């Protein structure tokens, strides 16, 4: 068995970031990245549907350590994938990646203070094992093998094609086709304008409306700064600007939801113009940021609807039939292709089976330590970004903290670090791992996640300003993280 100081699971945006931070902040450690797919990139290699793009600006979704210098701030999937490839190649991270290695299980040995990672080589079917002193899970939060697909009655009767965006076929003919997109989340909002370029017509069938906000794909201030200043300085200034804007909008949404709700709905009304039932189709029943606010780039969805290339129907699906979909109200939506943009299937730590000395670990029985580790589980962290801001803002901070933790262990001669509840934590109420966020893909699986408490460090606040202090300045040896 090969042994490494640190094994990273996943070579997407989180895993590449983790490897970079370890390489620069704890450079003498041996590191391997185990990736189940045949290429790096994670989400940005997996999703191939038309128009795939970021839902956050790349000055905050990009790595803190590597500037995004392209003209478009809201980038398409292939550009983001190239950014990740360039990052991995330039820093030599690509040489640390073992591809087609699917991690099945990990068992902690108290005797040796090591994880034994059991994996399957997907090309040969052979089982392989590795050991490591520290395991860093960077495998994302959803299943790569399948998206969430509700059971639609009569699906087998439909004579056309039914496609989930996560399993987009390579050679699908879209030109001149009538298409129904089921869903109104970020994927649907991206897909509809892309499909409308060549389709005969695209209908977005939504069970309920989603909050939408329009913004250009070009950040003029960022591009101006790039012409005037060194790349890294311009990037840092833009990153700070955009981070503060994100935080302001989110906090405003929490403190004065009705004001933000009115602003968003009136913005949609102005862009659509006359003749649209904004109350029915674009007025959600929840408050802004109870679910993510979806980005409409350059107002493309609204212009497609104004000009008749796309339309929206707010209703439920009664059943699929030979020619399309019958809605709950009895309306028939005839089409050639149905796209089920119905969300993700969430996984806890990549679906890996964890155990300690052979006994299974149930993460639903643990408490979340700083949103990255788990009570009673040694030498394990997971990288999970923000749900209310750009993902990478938080994963960069988590990587810094893990490096601090590993360096502290080395300085005191420790081989094990485990967050443990203090006596004063015994009466903590069990709160959901993420609170105040209600999309279906989260709620369907929240019972599988660790608990959140009501006091530090057992909280997961999803607050960048708080996390910067927590991960960069707080003491690693805080009385909760126990060392052996």
Give a brief rundown of this model:
By secondary structure, this protein is an alpha/beta fold. The chain has 13 helices and 25 strands.
Summarize the structure in words.
The chain is built from 13 helices and 25 strands. The protein has 484 residues and is of the alpha/beta class. It folds into 2 domains: 2-144 and 346-483, FAD/NAD(P)-binding domain (3-Layer(bba) Sandwich); 149-342, FAD/NAD(P)-binding domain. Helix content is 29%, strand content 23%.
CATH topology of the largest domain: FAD/NAD(P)-binding domain
Count of distinct strands: 25
Largest sheet: 9 strands, mixed
Helix content: 25-40%
Key traits:
nine-stranded mixed β-sheet, 23% strand, 484 residues, alpha/beta, 2 domains, 25 strands, 13 helices, five-stranded parallel β-sheet, globular, FAD/NAD(P)-binding domain
């Amino acid at each position: 068995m090969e042994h490494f100081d640190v094994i990273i699971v996943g070579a997407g945006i989180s895993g590449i970031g983790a490897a970079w931070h370890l390489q620069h902040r704890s450079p003498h450690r041996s590191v391997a990245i185990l990736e189940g797919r045949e290429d790096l990139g994670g989400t940005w290699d997996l999703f191939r549907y038309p128009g795939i793009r970021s839902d956050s600006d790349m000055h905050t979704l990009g790595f803190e350590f590597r500037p995004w210098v392209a003209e478009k701030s809201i980038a398409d999937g292939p550009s983001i994938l190239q950014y990740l490839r360039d990052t991995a190649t330039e820093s030599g991270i690509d040489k640390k990646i073992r591809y087609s290695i699917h991690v099945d299980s990990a068992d902690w040995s108290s005797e040796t203070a090591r994880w034994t990672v059991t994996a399957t080589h997907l090309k040969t079917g052979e089982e392989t094992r590795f050991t490591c002193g520290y395991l860093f899970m960077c495998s994302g939060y959803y299943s790569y093998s399948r998206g969430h697909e509700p059971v639609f009655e009569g699906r087998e009767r439909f004579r056309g094609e039914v496609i989930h965006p996560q399993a987009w076929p390579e050679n699908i003919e879209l030109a001149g086709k009538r298409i129904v997109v089921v869903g109104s989340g970020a994927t649907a909002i991206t897909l509809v304008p892309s499909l409308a370029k060549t389709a005969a017509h695209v209908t977005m069938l939504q069970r309920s409306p989603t909050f939408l906000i329009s913004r250009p794909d070009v950040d003029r201030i960022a591009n101006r700064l790039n012409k005037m200043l060194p790349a890294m300085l311009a990037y840092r200034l833009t990153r700070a600007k955009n981070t503060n804007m994100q935080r302001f909008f989110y906090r405003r949404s929490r403190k004065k939801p009705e004001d933000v709700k009115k602003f968003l709905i009136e913005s949609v009304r102005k862009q659509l113009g006359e003749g649209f039932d904004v109350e029915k189709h674009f007025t959600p029943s929840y408050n802004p940021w109870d679910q993510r606010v979806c980005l409409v780039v350059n107002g493309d969805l609204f212009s497609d609807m104004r000009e008749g290339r796309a339309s929206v129907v707010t209703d439920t699906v009664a059943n699929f039939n030979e020619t399309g979909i019958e809605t709950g109200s009895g309306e028939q939506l005839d089409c050639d292709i149905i796209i089920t943009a119905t969300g993700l299937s969430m996984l806890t730590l990549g679906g890996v089976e964890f155990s300690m000395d052979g006994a299974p670990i149930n993460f639903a029985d643990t408490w979340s330590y700083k949103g990255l580790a788990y009570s009673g589980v040694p030498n394990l962290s997971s990288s999970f970004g923000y749900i209310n801001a750009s993902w990478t803002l938080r994963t960069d901070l988590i990587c810094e903290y893990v490096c601090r933790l590993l360096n502290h262990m080395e300085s005191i001669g420790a081989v094990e670090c485990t967050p443990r509840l203090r006596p004063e934590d015994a009466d903590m109420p069990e709160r959901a791992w993420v609170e105040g966020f209600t999309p279906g893909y989260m709620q369907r699986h929240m019972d599988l996640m660790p608990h959140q408490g009501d006091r530090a460090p057992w909280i997961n606040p999803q607050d960048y300003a708080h996390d910067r202090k927590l991960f960069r300045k707080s003491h690693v040896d805080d009385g909760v993280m126990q060392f052996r």
